Amino acid sequence: MEKEVILIPQSKRNLTGLDFFLLWSGAAISMAEIWAGGMLVSLGFWGGVMAIIIGHIVGNTPLSLGGIIGSEWGISSMFSIRAAFGRIGSFVASFFNIIQLLGWTAIMVIICARAMDVISIKMFGYNNRFLWILIAGLGSTVWAMVGHRWWKWIQRIAVVALAALCVVMTYVVMANLPLSFLKNMVADGSLPWATGFDIVIAMPISWLPLVADYSRFAKSTKSAYRGTWWGYFLVSSWMFLLGFFLSLATGQSDPIPGMVAMGFGVIAFMVVLFSTITTTFLDIYSTAVSFMNIKPRVKEKVATFIFGISGTGLALFFPVDRYESFLYFIGSIFIPLFGVVLFDYFVYRKRNVDVNQLLHQKEYDLLAWLAWAGGFVIYRLFLNYLPVFSASLPSLFSSGTLYLVLKKWIKK
Questions:
Q1: Taking a C-beta distance cutoff of 8 angstroms, is the pair 400, 125 a contact?
Q2: What is the model's pTM?
Q3: How far apart are CA 91 and CA 95, in angstroms?
Q4: Which residues, in sequence order, are bridge partners of residue 218?
Q5: Per-position b or e across 248-259, b if 16+ CB within 10 A of its CB
Q6: 79-93, 125-139, 219-233, 316-330: which range is least confident on average?
Q7: Does the structure show a pLDDT above 80 at 383?
Q8: How confident is the model at residue 4 (pLDDT cuts 50, 70, 90)?
Q9: In the predicted model, what is the mean pLDDT of the chain?
Q10: What region does 263 belong to: left with phi over 0, alpha with psi -120 to 50, or beta?
Q11: Better-predicted residue by pLDDT, 215 or 326
Q12: With the C-alpha atoms ordered 242, 247, 252, 253, is the resulting torsion angle positive or negative?
């Protein structure tokens, strides 16, 4: 029974490279990404642009590598963790992933509701944040429940429409930013470059714990990898830059008032609502998939509905002002965890796993846990005491390297 739930047979893998490009493009068209881009204004023009581009190159690579595990074996992200961490280890990771995905669902719904409130007040003199939370949350839940066979079609329509609207917004923003003004924007020192770099990396890394949930439906590993990498890199970088330039143009870190002030009204309303749905449904669906790693007999649609409603309810209370801290929490937990997973799969196992064996995997692997803990400590040390350096890369490589060293040492 568990195998039938967890393992996707080849006959049901119908997503192409284009589907993954559009899937991750849709995930990247998000107010959260535009908002995060606005956080980087204090880095100055060149510092901000470099952090966005380099950060996405660095963050996208482990994201896409994590997808390879799913596309090669037809297994979800949390189930794949069993190879390195054991069965109980994957349950612990699933627990943390459920927390972060419920948090992301709440954050996305809150950002959407706040934005729609600001826009609707300006356009119609009407505000009702509770209504917008319900519309965004329930819309995302329904989208998540329709299943992967329908995603490929509705994502194509939605993403193309959203991209067209964002092109218009980008053109207007850039038309209000003369080149001479951009050249004179220098870092003010309030945000170390490496800290801004980690904010950028945290965005693609936040998708790493669920990327295989979708790549397991891929027809081809190579096309899934390319579609994931380029879809998220191009569009997420664009959204970060849009938020960055919007903040430069308006002098406000929150992009929504700037959008309204620049006359985006209807366009902004549509982008906010539909981009929230095309992004948040991924969080909701993968929350259910993570739970099913622990309880495989639960029906997928039932779990999706429950977690969609739970994330929507959480949006009523979630402290969204702690958004930046939330990104660092995600980084400190999942960067070292997947450092172990990626080094285990690509270096230690050389891309060979026995899926049947994972169904009856040992309870836990102490070496993997030690390496994970070591990477977590490295991340927090760099973040808190060495902010001039990035915490992400040292954490990723230290956990993976420590895992390999421990494995080799124990074998001797």
A1: no
A2: 0.83
A3: 6
A4: 15
A5: bbbeebbbbebb
A6: 316-330
A7: yes
A8: very low
A9: 84
A10: left
A11: 215
A12: positive
Q: Which residues contact 310 (CB under 8 A, 6 or more apart)?
A: 102
User: Token pair for residue 398?
Assistant: 């230290």
Short-list 152, 173, 204, CA closest to 32 = 204
Residue 253's pLDDT band (boundaries 50, 70, 90)? low
As given in the structure block, the two tokens for residue 14 are: 């119908």
- 68 pLDDT band (50/70/90 cuts)? very high
The residue with tokens 């070591």 is 374
Tokens for 6?
A: 């967890």
